[in-house]
Write a structure and sequence with these properties.
The protein is an alpha/beta fold and 185 residues long. The strands form two sheets. Strands 1-2-3-5-4 form a five-stranded mixed β-sheet. A hairpin with an 8-residue loop joins strand 4 and strand 5. The radius of gyration is 18 Å and the shape is globular. It starts with a helix and ends with a helix. The N terminus is likely disordered.
Length: 185
């Protein structure tokens, strides 16, 4: 019993330390997302708007009942990779070069973690990982090929701020690899 109490105290202390190390998070909400951003409240709202547009596009293909989501999807964006790494180090033992989706049985606890970079790289990483988060909100254990396939398929979508819509762009990056594999003797 003592060990359980000590472990709980240690977890709370480490988690509290992680939050203390990072900057203040600003929150913005949309119909289906809660976004926490270390960058700014404006960035949080812009990210929520982008995610809503992405979700609408994803759902043109997947046809899930978005009104059946048990909770808003959570997204946490760090101001830089260092803050992201520090936070993640307390949760999982591996470093990551890109965003990470932490999935729990309870969708309300699951969270997409990312960090700000230049606008194009940020949008691409967001599109890539947000579709996995969306898929896993409805399908608890989708096969890896489906997750990765959808992520690559959607990673080149664009966001048009004036219309608040996402537009699909074919991701043909794989064609070059296939051509080189086909030409190898």
């Amino acid at each position: 019993m003592k060990y359980k109490a000590m472990i709980i105290i240690l977890i709370v202390a480490v988690t509290g330390g992680v939050f203390a190390q990072s900057g203040a998070f600003q929150e913005a909400s949309s119909d289906n997302y809660r976004v926490f951003s270390e960058v700014s409240v404006t960035h949080a709202q812009e990210t929520a708007d982008i995610l809503e547009a992405f979700l609408e596009l994803y759902n043109e293909y997947l046809h899930f009942d978005i009104y059946a989501l048990p909770a808003k999807l959570r997204v946490r964006i760090f101001a830089d990779k260092t803050n992201f790494d520090n936070y993640l180090a307390a949760l999982i033992p591996q470093k990551r070069d890109s965003f990470v989706f932490l999935q729990y049985k309870d969708v309300a606890k699951s969270e997409l973690l990312g960090f700000y970079m230049d606008d194009e790289s940020f949008r691409r990483a967001l599109a890539h990982h947000a579709v996995v988060q969306f898929l896993k909100a409805y399908v608890p254990n989708p096969p890896l090929w489906l997750q990765k396939g959808l992520a690559v398929y959607f990673e080149k979508i664009q966001y048009v701020p004036e219309s608040r819509k996402a537009t699909f762009s074919d991701n043909l990056a794989w064609v070059k690899t296939m051509k080189s594999l086909a030409s190898d003797p």
